[in-house]
Amino acid sequence: MLPITIDQIIVFLILFLSLVLFIQGRFRYDIIALLALCSATIIGVVPWDHAFSGFANPAVITVAAVLVISRGLLNAGVVEMISGWLQKVGNRPTMQVSALTGLVITLSAFMNNVGALALLMPVGIKMARNSALPVSLLLLPLAFGSQIGGMITLIGTPPNLIISAFRAEHLGQGYGMFDFSPVGLGIALFSFVFIGLIGWRLIPRRTGSGSRDDFFHIKDYITEIYVPEDTKFAGKPLREIYKATNAKITIIQVIRGSHTRPVPFMYEKIKIGDILIVQAALDELKKFLNITGFQLEEKKITQDGFIQTGDSLLMEATISLESPTIGLNVKDIDLWSSFGVSLIAVARQGILVKERLKDIKFQAGDVLLLQGTEGLLKEAIKTLGFYPLAERGLKIGVPKRIAESIGIFALAIIIAALGLLPVQIIFTLAAVVMVLIQLVPIREIYESIDWPVIILLGAFIPVGQAMEDTGGAELIASTLLSFQTILSPVILLTIILIVTMLLSALINNAATAVLMAPISFSIATGLGVSPDPFLMAIVIGASSAFLTPVGHQSNALVMGPAGLKFGDYWKLGLPLEIVIVIVSIPVILYFWPM
Description:
Distance between the termini: 23 Å
Helix content: 55-70%
Number of strands: 9
Structural class: alpha+beta
């Protein structure tokens, strides 16, 4: 085993502290990556002139270009056209899960996997509702399938591009567009069959069955009701109001002036001007309001009705992991003044929120019930990092635009596959062409790029390089190689795959790839074997973040709408990862022998 140096200790310490911060989740991962880069540069383990070299890495450029291309495909209606076909698969859970999972795997092989998931999520929710199925049975396979599809092509997910760039730097040539496909397709096929036949049965049923009369059966919303002067129920006790309405509604608190009465007594008399904090499903809430004449507190403030005629509509949206609203409340966002949109209610699965609606601090996965015109709602959702869940007509794109978008994308893939131009050049060119022909409007260019991921990659790549330059990766590899008398190369390959899977469940998968690439390369070099199977193991492991909701954006995105809890993910995720480990090792070694 090699002796350890001061520089190696510093790099390990920076990486360890970064890992702790990633897991804690108190700061966004791009901020943590920038802190790690600045610390490493100031201390001296990253040279000053290389501090921002990561932003010139081909992987970073390609990720940004692919995100713009994905927006062009979405705008053209390509994905929505395909999604419409899913409505014909019938009501059997096996068929629905298989159709959704198969489609998201296919789409996410060629476009941003979170974008593919966000597009298909409303389709899955609608299918679950129409079939009286728990939403979780369809959404969790969608989230996992979006990650599995990323294993298939070079552009499927950022870790693939990182590994390709790493190989190009060390072996003189990166991976081609479909070099990942033999392994990725094999794993995708077995994963698809497992999820469709067995896996979905392991998912907890966290939500009630859907109904045609509600939105997506969000179990309960938290909202506020105002007692106006003209209601006949003013002065009546709660017991009498409950009996008269027969609505399944829970009054959590009564706010009267500056006083709050938590869990009010059943004989508590309701007075004019009281504000009631209630918990109820949407249809029960509507029933309660219609009978009592009470009003939503939001209506009192903005003079908007609960459900208006004309252009005003209600929309459900979930808060993404990257939303700038996380940790803020509706007052901080100034939702009404800034966007002309009203917050009607909040749903947080598994947690009873007892705060005033205006004081609730938003969390990733919260489901918000919003009211406004279609244009204002779309603008607010886009700006605030929400994903729409409300039923929306899946419009078929104009055929000419569909043909143009598919033609540009297919041509770029062919050129990249033939090696006529580097992938970062051809996909950047394809993105520019989509902008020039207005498939992607100018204002959407930078909106379509996931900037936290770009910053993470650009900042963390030099830190990962420092681990290699200081000999840290070689030190870890030599420690593992000291056991090679009892651990065969195949077992070491399996260990690399499993460790990468575990890391990707805790931190961003791009950061996982940056950390694990030099270690796996050093192990292969020490064994005197080809590094390709070890790099492929990193690709597979980084796209297998199935154990927690924090390992991948797709997992966090479905948590609220599906009513999932933190401990629900491993119930499908762990068996799926076992299947992937069993399948991937022989498949990797067959196509990429040592």
